[in-house]
Amino acid sequence: MTTFTGSTSFKVTIDGCGGVFNLPSNPIGLLANVDDGFGWSVPPSFPSALTVAPYTGVQKPSNPLNLEGGILSIPSNPLNLKGALHIFEGTTKSKKYKGWVYDSRTDSLNGPFFNESVTTLTTKDNSSEMYCVNEQNEVKKTDLLEFNNPYFKTFVDPFTDINTAFDTSVEDGIVMSKIGNGFCYRNKFMAKPFEEPVSGGGIVEDPLFFKGCYLANAETNWLHLGDEHNEKQLFRVDLRFHKNSCGHLWMYVKNDEGIIKGQYKGAIKEHMKVFTNLRGRSFRIQMMVATHTEYPWAMREMAIGHLYGKSF
Q1: Shared domain check, 214 and 192
Q2: How many other C-beta atoms can be found within 10 angstroms of the C-beta atom of residue 124?
């Protein structure tokens, strides 16, 4: 039996992030029993916010507490821990797909529409008007030509508290990774950009919480940019949105070797640039927007900045 004694404060390292615990002045008295697989036992005086789990030989952090044989299981913001990576583990509420609309004006399929509990959706012949009926038996109308208007109404920013979590099992919303590692929406989970979503939840690293929002997800097929044989360098994507568009943007580009570049760009602005610096012959583009149910956005133009190179 070996006894380790701690003082007022000590440093820990978790997944490469440093942090400091301020503990009571009394010795901690961590006990390591080398005879039962390096299991840890913690005296009652040890702070309850911090738990110590047995070391199983897997996921051992580098030099935890400068001790051998144990790992730490740490809840969100224990004591005054700084620098640890925040994660969200869970899922979000699902909504039933309600309908799709074919737009002959743009020769495109639009949807799915699931806001406002829509149960029936149709368009009026020879017009741009769309009608729906919701679960409250209300008939509503919208005019698709309104999207031709280059300006939307001004709004008060609804995304002022995206770092604060909410109960995703009760309230509508999505959870998106600021660093591109995990996206939860409508009871779906996508681990990385361009990956196939799966039903249920998952782990979102460095999460941002968008209450009252849904995810608008657009993805292109392979683009060879006018030359399918020669190599190109795609250095950026330029976007132009309607003025007063509301949303938060993620954009990623994938080349034919599977390399992905892109980032979270924050709140939508009228002109935005996404820098990639990616080489390849063909590319795919994925754009995700955290979209508020009460405030619209519309993209007017996308331009791909690239340079041509040689085939070999």
Answers
A1: yes
A2: 10
